[in-house]
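cron nightly-structures :: item 1 of 1
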Amino acid sequence: MKIISWDEFNSCVKSITSSSKGENFSGVYGIPRGGLCLSVALSHSLGIPLLTQIKKGCLVVDDVYETGRSLSQVLNTPEVTAFVWFSKVKPKWWHAVELAKPDEWLIFPWENKDNAAKDMKDYQLSRIKN
């Protein structure tokens, strides 16, 4: 398990902000739940609206790309730019701030560290059922 700090979160926000200079996004949308903290921070950093739904020309963010299920919902929206903090596979049509090992469990600063083992097990079970 890898425990990620708020300082690392701030570095991620700075990296996405820097990579997005000169872009004219219609706003930023965060994939619930993991992308919500990033989207709020990026809304402030980039000075763009925080969106409650994906729309044309927006920036979409999420905490981690594992299977692609969450982020795949943006594929049908034109002119969307997608960023994830961590990608567990080599990015194709999305951007990643960092790469992580496919089997590495990440504990984000907003998550409860005491529940990490249970969260990991629940996640793994949810992927088997679907």
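cron nightly-structures :: done
Residues 57 and 98 are 23 Å apart (CA to CA).
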